[in-house]
Amino acid sequence: MTLNKMGSPGRSGVVRKPNESMRLIVTTFIGIVFGFLIGVSFPAFTLTKLNLPSNLFPYVEDKNSGLSTQAFLNAWSTLKGNENNSSEAKNLNNTSKIWVPSNPRGAERLPPGIVAAKSDFYLRRLWGIPKEDITVKQKYLVTFTVGYKQKNNIDAAVKKVNFHSLTFTLSLSLSLSAPLNLFFLQFSENFTILLFHYDGRTTEWDEFEWSKRAIHVSARKQTKWWYAKRFLHPDIVAAYDYIFVWDEDLGVEHFNAEEYIKLVRKHGLEISQPGLEPNKGLTWQMTKRRGDREVHKFVEIMAPVFSREAWRCVWHLIQNDLVHGWGLDFALRRCVEPAHEKIGVVDAQWIDHQTVPSLGNEGEIVEGKAPWQGVRERCRREWKMFQDRVANAEKAYNKSIGIDLPKSTAS
């Protein structure tokens, strides 16, 4: 037996100190456990879910770096926590932006079932159950652009004398005490009535009972096409089968709105107007009533009636600045196909154009010219501007697709 330098027996070679051996064992054990946990638990679990006690490895420490195992575990848990939070936030953001092709622009973040893309002019109550507000949903919309001076004419148009009822009543013996029903609503409960007031006077119309169920919109010195562009968006009037866009100076003695709609449907007209009495007022030859037929094809802009589908196109055709709409009637053919079959005048239901100089007098005296002269000059100017815009737009589009039409056919 041999003795080492310390005088004790032992094997030759390096003898490790007990503390170093223990440290090596513990470090090895931790490495194995740590690697096992990563391999088994990632990515389904994080180390925080293992609930390792903080005093499990109290003495495992790198003296040089000062980084303890517990500190490393804490850093790892924090990193995984941030990663999970980021993933959850990303998922939350994705679910909050629900995009469906049918959703209107701007409503991408809404679930489709809550989107109310269209509206109407149906009046609502301030009380009760919402679904019980409307007893009758009007199918047609009639608009008049009015001034208070023409109130009696509009009243007569809406509530005209029922001559049939009058004749029948007077033929009875007075002793029968028959009800004297002299009036009926020209535009029945199937119609929503909308008045555009160019003179700012609205409350005075309350003297008429029918006016209390009408919609009143007021903007001074504006035309019906200015109103139509701003208040008759296709999604606002989508509830109505037909939209009447009428002037205030129309006589309706020979007109019945319900019968008119029947003829429009019968002949498949998408854009129409009643015939105009040929011996009264200033009218286009093409819109004069013809007594030998129900309908003839073509339409002027004075008292037009549009189907819901046609109006969606016409609304886009109306210009924001060309408020008189002169020339618009000649472009309406672009909104229906075939135009010669779907645009027409209903001769069997006709009206009188009274040519009342109402809106024309809303102009101002400029350079010594009377108000109506300034208005008329702008009308003519707008007609030329509109024609040029249509021609230029069509020419630009044709050029973009490689078609170069002669000037004579581009307008």
UniProtKB/TrEMBL annotation:
InterPro entries recorded: DUF707
Domain of life of the source: Eukaryota
Pfam families given in the database record: DUF707
Ranges that cross the membrane: 21-45
Keywords: Membrane, Transmembrane, Transmembrane helix
Protein name per the record: Uncharacterized protein
Native species: Camellia sinensis var. sinensis
Source taxonomy: Eukaryota, Viridiplantae, Streptophyta, Embryophyta, Tracheophyta
